[in-house]
């Protein structure tokens, strides 16, 4: 990322997030380095950001392709909550990203359960939260965010991804200032995270649902073990997706991938 480090630090209006930031040209995965730093005592809000990743990771063991021009960073969090609450941080992150992309660029963004941010049904940002716990005690959480920013997905992604992904450049027909985006994301993230810690999940979820275009639609949910079809009714206080199946029963789902059905 072409980032002016001094200018970035000066313009950053956060209390903790990004005050300690490790900038790298290349790293295997910003999440892996952030986890290592966290395990060695890094303070809350420590950030790792890289221009590219050679082994970027997505959810469910997938690869996250990380060409130059994208924004790839991870934030160390040390929330004083139980593990069952900390899993909801993925909603904190996706809400923060959705708000920033709307505020900075006026994009009609949607959140997709549990952790994607989409524009026009295509993924523009992915989020990977990883937790280190001892029983129910949270030692730390790393929130990793990858934004497809300044590249053309047609040029850099393999065939199957081209239809599923988009980038800010593709949506706006111009490049964005990565520095401005990065600063805004850290500020929003801190702000939504602080609200989550202060007021709990309720207000975050309420706002997250306003971006959740898949609610009320017929969806397919796939997990490692099953494939379900039904109506996406809600995301509840535990972060579970409630799905009304075709036989009328309602099922709560904790892990999976949602795609909206067009027929
Ligand atoms: C997903 O959609 O499956 C999640 C993708 C998360 C990608 C980001 S990029 C920064 C951080 N480092 C990683 O290796 N992954 C996350």
Polypeptide structure, described:
It is a single chain. The chain is α+β, with helices and mostly antiparallel strands and 263 residues long. Helices cover 32% and strands 30% of the residues. It has nine helices and twelve strands. It has helices at residues 5-11, 30-39, 83-86, 89-105, 153-156, 159-162, 168-172, 178-199, 201-210, and strands at 21-27, 47-53, 71-77, 109-112, 116-119, 122-134, 137-147, 218-222, 227-235, 241-245, 250-253, 257-260. The strands form two sheets. It has a seven-stranded mixed beta sheet with strand order 1-2-3-7-6-5-4, with helices on both faces. A five-stranded antiparallel beta sheet has the order 11-10-9-8-12, with no helix packed on it. A hairpin with a 3-residue loop joins strand 4 and strand 5. Helix 4 packs across helix 8, helix 4 crosses helix 9 (201-210) and helix 8 packs across helix 9 (201-210). The radius of gyration is 18 Å and the shape is globular. It starts with a helix and ends with a strand. The model has no long low-confidence stretch (mean pLDDT 95). Bound molecules: biotin (BTN). Biotin binds at residues 29-31, 53, 56-59, 62, 64, 72-74, 116, 126-128, 144-146.
